[in-house]
Write a structure and sequence with these properties.
With 477 residues, the chain is mainly alpha-helical. Helices cover 51% and strands 4% of the residues. The strands form 3 sheets. The chain has a two-stranded antiparallel sheet with strand order 1-5. It has a two-stranded antiparallel ribbon with strand order 2-3. Keywords: Lipoprotein, Signal.
């Protein structure tokens, strides 16, 4: 009988020990993360950064002079240093987007034989590759030379900077490979793709449209290469209507609302009003998009003077449509594609139509995409101050296309900023207290000067100096 008690006590002790160990386990958080969920997070982090209005992370809507700050005007005056903005952008793209996209691909490959979506694996990997190309292209267009070939290797703590144009052409090659490898007869992400819901045909059109955009950026640097790139993108199939626009689908409630909603509405702050540069041009042109984007002051659209404090109550501010929680986080539109094609046609590329028709299509699409009517578009286009053939009789095509493309890119800071740098139109105001000339690039993060000093110095020297005014390899004029 004594032996039976001893055995029973021993059993209870083992059971209690096991239960105590179980108490230390975190049963709420998964031990592993799927590649698909990493992709979802990286996709959102990337688009959040692109459409962001927070002055700590993205100042391009201010630099494009779409908006003006009400009280704190440092960023409107081209101050990149006080808030370490370049470092925040650098981290958001490299750490939160590219690294997670890279890991997502690795995990999807590792779990290939265990996923019910195995037959969709290749399409998933190609979509991840397209997003990586998009992320890297944004970094090159922002900084110039950047860490690339060694950037995602965790064993290299001080990655070398690669040459900007070499990276850019390699990205276009990677994009072409991904486009050709997509199988539109199969699916991809069943869930978690908050841009195209896993539709492979749509991803292919976006990738080709991105290739078009990237090709056009090189037109002044390598015209022959740009022409080949643009024409191959068109032949493979670009976005052909506004229903195919690429945008993040945000939700009506936090924490997955549009970043502009978070920074304007949820913050309870009144930090931004319309910029005088945009408002003055739109007022002159009787632009029908004004009520879609801005409020009025006594029935008049009033923009804040660039670089100066601007009372919120005395100036137009963003409309309810712009600050809506579930507003689309746009990264590519049909209207943008048409303006790129207009530029291509003027350069002698085979775009399938005339520059004038592409330009007209771009304006119509932009007005319609924001909720304007066909009648609005017709009235606007009938004006001599907007009509392409009238304008090109007295102005350069870069001025005509550049101004309307810039307007159409409202609320899309990085693309508008890049358009200004490539087309040199419209002519922007000089901020009241500018700390530099117009920023042609973000300066490198301060942390790079300390933790990666040798490579930083080499990159700075290679691009002509780590200055805001330094023009990048594609910005020739």
């Amino acid at each position: 009988m004594k032996n039976i008690y001893i055995i029973a006590i021993a059993f209870l002790m083992v059971s209690c020990s096991s239960n105590l160990e179980d108490l230390n386990k975190n049963n709420k958080d998964p031990e592993t993360v799927s590649g698909e969920s990493l992709f979802t997070g990286a996709q959102k982090a990337l688009v959040d950064q692109i459409v962001q209005i927070n002055v700590n992370e993205n100042n391009t809507k201010l630099w494009a002079q779409f908006l003006q700050e009400t009280t704190y005007t440092d960023e409107s005056n081209y101050d990149q240093v006080t808030r370490t903005i370049p470092e925040n952008l650098w981290s958001a793209i490299y750490r939160d987007a590219l690294k997670d996209l890279d890991e997502a691909g690795k995990i999807i490959v590792e779990t290939f034989y265990f996923s019910p979506e195995d037959e969709y694996t290749n399409n998933k990997l190609m979509i991840i590759e397209i997003m990586k190309v998009y992320a890297y292209s944004h970094l090159v267009e922002t900084f110039g030379n950047i860490p690339y070939s060694e950037s995602l290797n965790i064993d290299i703590l001080t990655p070398a900077y690669d040459d900007g144009i070499t990276i850019y052409k390699d990205l276009i090659a990677r994009l072409t490979t991904a486009i050709e490898a997509l199988d539109t007869s199969k699916k991809s992400f069943i869930a978690g793709d908050n841009i195209y819901k896993g539709d492979v045909a749509s991803w292919k059109k976006f990738a080709n449209s991105l290739k078009l955009r990237m090709g056009m950026l090189l037109a002044d640097t390598d015209d022959a290469f740009a022409k080949t790139t643009v024409e191959s993108a068109i032949a493979s199939g670009i976005i052909t209507n506004s229903e195919e626009n690429a945008h993040m689908h945000y939700l009506p409630s936090a924490p997955n609302t549009h970043p502009v909603h978070a920074n304007v509405v949820l913050s309870g702050r009144n930090d931004f009003v319309a910029g005088e540069t945009l408002i003055d041009i739109m007022n002159t042109l009787n632009d029908p998009r004004r009520p879609l984007w801005f409020t009025t002051v006594g029935g008049i659209y009033v923009g804040g003077k660039i670089g100066s404090t601007s009372s919120y109550a005395s100036h137009s501010h963003l409309s309810e449509q712009i600050v809506a929680a579930d507003a689309p986080g746009v990264i590519m539109t049909y209207s943008e594609v048409q303006f790129l094609l207009a530029e291509g046609a003027e350069r002698g590329y085979d775009t399938g139509d005339t520059a004038a028709n592409h330009y007209t299509n771009g304006i119509r699409a932009s007005i319609n995409e924001w909720g304007g009517s066909t009648a609005d578009a017709n009235t606007y286009l009938a004006q001599p101050s907007v009509d392409y053939n009238t304008l090109t009789g007295t102005q350069t095509w870069k001025q005509v296309i550049g101004t309307q493309r810039w307007i159409s890119l409202f609320n899309r800071g990085p693309e508008a900023w890049t358009s200004i740098r490539t087309m040199d139109y419209p002519v922007l105001a000089t901020p009241a207290e500018a700390v530099s000339g117009f920023p042609n690039r973000y300066t490198y993060p301060i942390v790079e000067q300390t933790v990666n000093a040798a490579n930083y110095s080499a990159a700075s020297s290679a691009i002509g100096g780590d200055l805001p005014e330094t023009k990048l390899f594609w910005d020739k004029f």
